[in-house]
Amino acid sequence: MFQRDISEKLFSSVKSFYAVSLVGPRQSGKTTLLRYLYPEYEYINLEDPDMLQRIKLDPKGLLDTDKKWIIDEAQEYPELFSYLLGIIDKRKILGQFILSGSQNFLLMERISQSLAGRVAVLELLPLTYKELCSNNNEYQDNIWSLIYKGQYPGLYRNNIEPEIWYKSYVTTYIQRDVRQILKIKDLSKFYLFLQLCAARHGQLINFLDIGSACGISHTTIKEWINLLEASYIIFKLQPYYKNFNKRITKTPKLYFYDSGLVCHLLGIDSISYAKTHNIRGALFEGYIISEIKKIYFNKVKPFNGYFWLSNKGFELDLLLEKIDKIKAIEIKSSATFADHFLRQIKKWNELLINNNEKKFAENFIIYSGEESFIVNNINIVSYKDVESKLDMV
What we know:
With 393 residues, the chain is of the alpha/beta class. 44% of the residues lie in helices and 18% in strands. It folds into three domains: 7-123, Rossmann fold, CATH 3.40.50.300; 129-282, Arc Repressor Mutant, subunit A; 305-390, Trna Endonuclease, Chain: A, domain 1, CATH 3.40.1350. Strand 3, helix 5 (80-91) and strand 4 form a beta-alpha-beta unit. The longest helix is centred in the middle third of the chain and has 21 residues, at 162-182.
């Protein structure tokens, strides 16, 4: 059992809300975590046809008691949420229902329609580096092994080969979620779309370009990307909104949450290939940004992260904004520190000074090396120390 950092917030939410919903991608460990932390709760899974039929026959008779429930894949029975609302308002038992599901778009739609104000929503992503090391030290000294294999817990718990696991994962995701929500008849086009997105990992999103390569409209591509985002397969990183008298892009970047899935979709079939592939830099960059997002999610804090790109090509990989400060982060896939790593950070600080930016700036370079240190008041941070050194939330 991996020690999941979201557990603390989960405990406090169950004590404060009548219902709690734990969402996230398929196989991120939601059911395992809930059943481990709350063994005294009654558990039902509505993807089980027999259980679904049973609850449809008499939902109030089954649930309208003083018992507490974990209801998995709750979106499979839309009418359930009206019954839950009535039971919650009648009994007012804190933490009576914990809802979970993998079709997050449908689940959140049901929650917003029926349980708004009565439910806390938490998000569980695949393992962080810290969580992985809590029960598996094999990969903690080899970042490229971690990037190639990815961070879904089942890969480590059952010691499955990544190629086999991800093939099954993608097939299951497409067959269950994509077919059900989008009603796509030609699923091969959607798989091609996934591969094209993986090839653009860490790049500005170009809907027309992807649509042209798939042979479908850019409006359909937007719809499909929204589904990937709702399924916690990808996320968009928005550009920083301040102009500083320089024209900046308004187009977001596309990243996958899990580097192992990117490797699978691109046919990267070994650690050495991942380490030398021309997408190497984007793989490491996406891994670090996803790691930071996971830390925010585990603490149930908003992720105010952006990238910076000017019309002259001046770019910073990540800006984390708080009320009184900006953390500027450059991400380098090299394991050896070099002076030229400092160049973009220095230009960013000059830009802040020249535009009288009042926020206090902290500067970081995250690289794939083993040691963390300081050079010219710039924090050089090992991939191992991201959570401890950045002090994000």
